[in-house]
Amino acid sequence: MKRTRNAKIIATLGPGRSSETDIAELVEAGADVFRLNFSHGAHEEHKKRYDAIRRLEEKYKRPIGILMDLQGPKLRVGRFENGRIRLVKGQPFRLELTEEKGNDTVAPLPHPEIFAALRPGMDLLLDDGKVRLRVDKAGKDFAETEVVVGGDLSDHKGVNVPSAILELSALTEKDLVDLKYGLELGVDWIALSFVQRPSDLEEIKAIVQGRAGVMAKLEKPSAIEHLHGIVELADAVMVARGDLGVELPPEDVPVQQKRIINACRIAGKPVVVATQMLDSMVHAPTPTRAEASDVATAIYDGADAVMLSAETAVGDFPVESVSIMDRIINRVERDRLYRKMTDAARSHPEATAADAISAAARQAADTISAQVIVSFSSTGSTTLRIARERPAVPILGLTPNLSTARRLALAWGVHSARTKDVENFDEMMGKSVRMSKRREFATEGDSIVVVAGIPFGIAGGTNILHIAKVD
Known about the structure:
Blueprint: E1 8-13, H1 20-29, E2 33-37, H2 43-60, E3 65-69, E4 84-87, E5 92-96, E6 106-108, H3 112-117, E7 123-126, E8 131-139, E9 142-149, E10 151-154, E11 159-160, H4 173-185, E12 189-192, H5 198-208, E13 213-218, H6 221-225, H7 227-233, E14 236-240, H8 241-247, H9 252-267, E15 271-274, H10 289-301, E16 305-308, H11 310-313, H12 318-333, H13 336-344, H14 353-368, E17 372-376, H15 381-388, E18 395-399, H16 402-407, E19 414-418, H17 425-438, E20 447-453, E21 462-469
Parallel strand pairs: 1-2, 1-16, 2-3, 3-12, 5-6, 12-13, 13-14, 14-15, 15-16, 17-18, 17-20, 18-19
Antiparallel strand pairs: 4-10, 5-9, 7-8, 7-11, 8-9, 20-21
Helix pairs in contact: 5-7, 7-9, 10-12, 14-15
């Protein structure tokens, strides 16, 4: 079960693949973290999947991360008299704050926060951008628009307002109920949808209180405008390209993906690239060459993880999807150009002891051709700083906290393991050597680099770098 790659794979579970046997096949194919999508499914269904993952964790003797993905606000038009209308380019079309059924001249839009943000000249996108309206006039309960891009529109289709920040919490009442349940279950990561600004993260982090990592899903242009503030507050970031691609021109999405990954690399925060990575494999046993290139690009750019959604949740070839993603990552990471690009993108360490030690650990491992860097960390922060350096050797992240080990399953290059805490230097070195051998990272005669902090068991005190010989 030892992985031969650095970037991680997140697989979404759904009605298509949710038995313990199914999940086991995905783990063996290469899945490191599982996503529970709380936009669908009852709590009881998610608990069955959660319990199955934890049993497999025991079976395979490796931490497996669990990501709960909150639904977030869903902005939608109301219903129409005949269930569907057709809009023609150039025609006037009115939106009203009402629950009444609409027709081909007016539609109900039961979201006062949208009307409060609308200004003349703004665009509204309906049904994932298939229909585009331009606002001519707006008030607190109406908007007069012109159809810029026409098409069919049916009941409850989504609404996007790309050029506005809506006075709307990223956490709905449903999300708060789901969040409480997920924290009680013991999920490792929580993905927050509809992040528009840093304050959205402050709200959820005040509730989570460190019991799980908070991942900001960047799916709105306003989030890009506040990118650095969001990255600073988030524990991890997801490039949610599906929704981001609705509100941004297609040509901007790859540029923003690279920008987000770069910001996360500099900050040392895990970053996930998601949505439609191998979308054709929902119904086909192999991906298109363009999809393979898309996955490879995310790896070349330095993403910590890539995510499968419908491919594993409802697709016909879930195991094959994980397997081919595993193969693509392995192939890219063996490319000499990949190492060259990774080294070139490395940022300067910050003026802290932890960064100095982490940078020195990478340099020492290169100089002496060490087989592994062993990191002792109770919170995982030091291990993440080493991952930020993108060393050429694996990182064995040892921690006494199972929750930390599971959270580190998302991080680039980290092979996390739970171990008893150490009390002195000799015990730390002995455990580093034993775990390196047991996990098949080093054999007799190899060198390893060990990073830790004294006093032991105190978070944030990284101040030791030691080189050891495996005997």
